[in-house]
Amino acid sequence: MQAGLKRLSMALDDVDEDIDGDVPEEITDVEERALDDDHDGIEHIERRTIQYGSCGSTKLPPGMREDSAYRWLSFNKRGIGEKALALKHLFKAPTILLYAERSKRDARKYYSNSLHNGVGDAFRHALFSYRVTKKYGSSIAKQFGDAHEVSHVNPLNERLMDLYNNQVGRCLAGIRGNRSKDDVSVIKAAISAGRLQTSLDRSYPGTPACCQYGK
After folding, report:
1. How far apart are CA 128 and CA 141, in angstroms?
2. Structural domain spans, the chain
3. Could you count the other beta carbons within 10 Å of the beta carbon of residue 143?
């Protein structure tokens, strides 16, 4: 179990690392699920954007205070970490690991030159969240995306970029018309349409969040 959790951590990490083992071309039994109704205010935001078909059209406002930006994204910086969350969802964690590995592999395939804080990074986060939402719903996808950001403390502007792209991926998965489309094609189309954040917002400080929190 510990080895599995370690692989989940590596697969979700922003640093480009090799993943051991082959990842299957397809993960079967991908269920069509609507967004959950029971997880934080972000669910209401996502349902609203889905209603108007505008996932990613509302950008994170620049230069907000850190706590305000987190509220905008419904993120708790002191929330549960990914290892504890994986233990809480023992039967879901292995499939979520496969989604993380597949998304990282796909990012390397299509955007090998921008895997850190670039287009490939945005693609990977959105694709992972998109896939988990299709399988388990938006609530689980948000919990695992947030838990990774809690466990891996990045500079603030990097963390906000990751959280935003996770949000867009969840939103895209809630659009009924996307459910019959290829996952990669949906996220690539979102990139082409300017829906994802593909570079750091310099209006936010790059100071490591650990230092800001005094940890």
Report:
1. 8
2. 30-213
3. 21
| In contact, 154 and 205? CB cutoff 8 Å | no
Token pair in block for residue 81? 């970490």
Cα 43 to chain centroid distance, Å, stands at: 15
The DSSP secondary structure of 179-194, one letter per residue, reads: TTS-HHHHHHHHHHTT
To 10 degrees, what angle do helices 119-136 and 183-192 make?
130
Segment 68-122, tens digit of pLDDT: 999 999 999 999 999 999 999 999 999 999 999 999 999 999 999 999 999 999 9
Pair of tokens at residue 27: 């993960």
Query: How far is 144 from 156, CA to CA, in rounded Å?
Result: 19
Q: What are phi and psi of 109, to 5 degrees?
A: -70, -45
pLDDT tens for 171-192 read 999 998 998 999 999 999 999 9
Closest CA to 156 of 86, 63, 27: 63
Q: pLDDT tens for residues 201-212?
A: 988 877 544 433
Biggest CA–CA distance in the chain, Å, is 46
Write the CB contacts of 74 (distance below 8 Å, at least 6 apart in sequence): 40, 41, 42, 45, 142
In 3D space, the residue among 157, 148, 184, 158 whose CA is nearest the CA of residue 169 turns out to be 184
Q: Return d(Cα 104, Cα 14) in angstroms, integer.
A: 10
